[in-house]
Design the sequence.
C-alpha cells in the first residue's frame, strides 16, 4: 500500500454514530454518565469502526525493533546488542509484552525493521529490515527520505494484514536501545516545546547522561533542521526506523478503521508523525497510558487526549497499550451486554423534589 | 466467625517477603523499576498473601445490597424500589458489574443484607437480611450496635467462604439507593473533613438536592454524635447495612490474607470503618479507582493510597474494583512469567560512561 494512497483514503470518524451510541448508553441500567470514560471509549470505538453495535474480534500488538546510530553518543543505560537480544526474548515469549499479551489474548507480532546486529533466522520474526540501524542524528540525517517512506509503508502493510486477519483492537510497541533520543527530538519539533522539557531518563540514565542527551538532541535538531510541516523529512532527519514503522501502522489502522492503542514515548512520537501526515488520524488513536517519560505527556497535551492509565510505566514494547486493552473491551461489552431500564424493569430517575 | 476473634487474628502483612520479591523483579528482562506501579502491586500481593511465588486462583466480587431510611429525606435521584430491582438485575446478569465480572472471569455473589422491599425467593441470592433497611439517620441511629456487629460478622463469614472456595482476588460492591449519604457521613467522621468537602452528587442530584444532602449529613452527625474512636458505634449511628457488610468483608479478607480491591465511595467508607476497628487492615486493601465522589478521594488521601485507575466512574456495584482486577493479575503474571536477564541471555545495564 502506497503512502500517498493511504493518506488520501483515511476518512473522518463517524461522529454521528457516536451520538446514536450515547442514546443507547443512556437507556442502560445505570445513572446517566456514571461509567465515565468507559462511555466515552464506547462512543469513540463506534465512531472509529463506523459500526453499530460495536463488535469485538481478535487483538494484536505489533512490536517494531530497530537500532539507533545515536547510541554511539552514550545516551542509553544499555548496550546496543540488547535490541537484538530482546527480539529473541520476544520470540521466546519471555518479555513483559508477551506476558501481558497472553493475559488479554492478544497475539504478538515482532518486526525487525532495522536491528543493527545480524539476527539468525528466527521462527516468527517478520523481517522487514530497511537498513541495519539509523545513522547518528547528532551528525546528520537518521535515514534517507525514501527509507522513511519505506518504514511508513511497512507499518501500513502490517495494519492492513491485522485488519485482514480479523483484528479489531490493535497496539504498536517498540524496541530499540537509544530510541527515546529521536522520539524526544520529534516531540520537541512537532509540539514546539523546549528540548529539556521533553527529554526524560529513558531506561534509567543518570543526571550527567541526561545533560548529554539534551545536548545531543539539540545538536540533532540544529544539524538536520527538520520542519514540522514536512513530517516525512522530519522522520528521515531525526526519527528512527521503528518510529516510522509505528507511524505507518497508525496510518494503516486509521485507513482500515481499526481502533489502535498508543503506548509510551516512542509510539506517541510516531503518533505525532502520523497526525502531521494526516490530521484525521488523531481521532483514530486511543491514548493508552501516561508514561514516566515527560515528552510523552507533552505530546498528549498537544494532541488533546488524556491517557487511560497512569501506572508509572517506562518500559515500551507496547506494554502500556496492551494493559489498556481490557478497558476498551469493557467499554464495548458494557454497551452490548447491559440490560436497559425497560428490559430489567428498573425504575428510572425521579424528577427533582 | 466472631468479630473480636477476627480482629485479634489479623496479622501484619509480610514486609520481608516484599523485599525478597523486589530482588526477583530486578532480575527480570526490563530496566529496574520500569513496570512502575505493577511492581509495587506484585510486592503488595506477596506481602498480603505471605506466599512466594505469588499464586493466582479464582476471583469473586461480593455485592451487598441494602436500603436506607435517610432516602425519605429526598437525598437521591432514584426511588428506593430501585435497590430491589437492581438486585434482580444482578441475579439475571444484566447489570454493569455482571458484564465486567464475566469479562475478567470473576463470580458475582449477591447478598441481601437489608433491602427494604420483600424480595421473592431468587435463585442465587444470599439472604442475610439483618433488617429491612436502616432507620433515618437524620433522626436517630441507623441501627443498633448489635445489628452493626451482625453486619460485620456476615461480611467476615462471606470472606471466609471466598477463601475456602479458592478465591485469591476479591472485591466488594454495593447497591443501596441513598447510600452515598451515610458513606459521606462516615468519611467526614473518620477523616475529620468538613461535610461539604466529602459530599458529592451521588447518582446525579441537582444543586438544591446537594444542599439538602449536606444539611441531612450535618444533622445526622449532630443528632447521633458518633465518635471515630468507637467505629462499631459509628457504623450503627450513621452507617448502613451494606456498609457494615463490606467493612466485615474487608476484615475477613485481612484475616485470611486474601487481596481485596476497594471500589468507590461506599466501599471506601467501609474501609475506613474496618481500618478504625483494626489498623492492620490498611495494608491488605488495594485502592482500585478514584471515584467522581469527592469523599472517596478524601478518604484515600487519609488512608495514604493512590488508587490504580481514574476513569470518572460513579456507579458502585464493585465496578471499579473489578476493572482493576486485570492490573493485579498482570502484576502477578509478570512476576511469575517473565524471563530473567540470565535466562534470556540479555545484557544488563552498562556502567555510566
Sequence:
Amino acid at each position: 500500500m502506497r503512502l500517498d494512497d493511504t493518506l488520501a483514503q483515511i476518512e473522518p470518524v463517524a461522529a454521528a454514530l457516536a451520538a446514536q451510541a450515547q442514546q443507547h448508553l443512556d437507556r442502560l441500567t445505570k445513572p446517566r454518565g456514571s461509567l465515565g470514560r468507559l462511555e466515552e471509549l464506547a462512543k469513540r470505538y463506534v465512531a472509529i469502526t463506523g459500526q453499530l453495535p460495536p463488535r469485538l474480534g481478535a487483538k494484536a500488538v505489533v512490536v517494531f525493533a530497530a537500532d539507533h546510530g545515536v547510541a554511539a553518543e552514550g545516551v542509553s543505560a544499555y548496550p546496543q546488542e540488547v535490541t537484538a537480544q530482546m527480539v529473541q526474548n520476544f520470540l521466546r515469549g519471555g518479555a513483559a509484552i508477551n506476558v501481558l499479551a497472553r493475559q488479554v489474548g492478544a497475539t504478538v507480532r515482532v518486526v525487525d525493521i532495522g536491528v543493527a546486529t545480524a539476527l539468525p533466522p528466527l521462527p516468527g520474526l517478520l523481517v522487514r529490515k530497511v537498513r541495519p540501524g539509523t545513522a547518528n542524528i547528532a551528525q546528520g540525517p537518521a535515514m534517507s527520505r525514501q527509507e522513511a517512506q519505506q518504514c511508513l509503508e511497512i507499518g501500513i502493510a502490517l495494519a492492513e494484514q491485522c485488519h485482514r486477519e480479523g483484528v479489531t483492537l490493535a497496539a504498536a510497541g517498540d524496541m530499540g536501545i537509544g530510541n527515546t533520543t529521536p522520539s524526544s527530538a520529534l516531540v520537541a519539533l512537532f509540539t514546539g516545546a523546549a528540548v529539556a522539557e521533553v527529554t526524560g531518563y529513558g531506561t534509567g540514565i543518570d543526571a550527567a547522561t541526561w545533560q548529554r542527551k539534551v545536548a545531543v538532541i539539540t545538536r540533532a535538531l540544529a544539524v538536520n533542521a527538520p520542519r514540522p510541516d514536512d513530517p516525512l523529512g522530519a522522520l528521515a532527519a531525526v526519527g528512527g526506523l521503528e518510529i516510522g514503522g509505528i507511524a505507518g501502522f497508525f496510518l494503516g489502522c486509521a485507513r482500515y478503521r481499526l481502533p489502535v492503542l498508543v503506548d509510551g514515548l516512542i509510539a506517541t512520537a510516531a503518533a505525532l508523525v502520523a497526525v502531521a501526515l494526516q490530521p484525521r488520524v488523531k481521532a483514530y488513536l486511543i491514548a493508552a497510558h501516561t508514561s514516566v517519560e515527560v515528552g510523552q505527556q507533552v505530546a498528549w497535551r498537544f494532541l488533546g487526549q488524556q491517557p487511560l492509565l497512569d501506572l508509572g510505566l517506562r518500559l515500551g514494547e507496547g506494554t502500556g497499550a496492551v494493559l489498556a486493552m481490557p478497558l476498551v473491551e469493557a467499554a464495548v461489552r458494557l454497551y452490548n451486554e447491559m440490560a436497559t431500564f425497560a428490559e430489567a424493569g428498573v425504575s428510572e430517575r425521579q424528577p427533582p423534589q
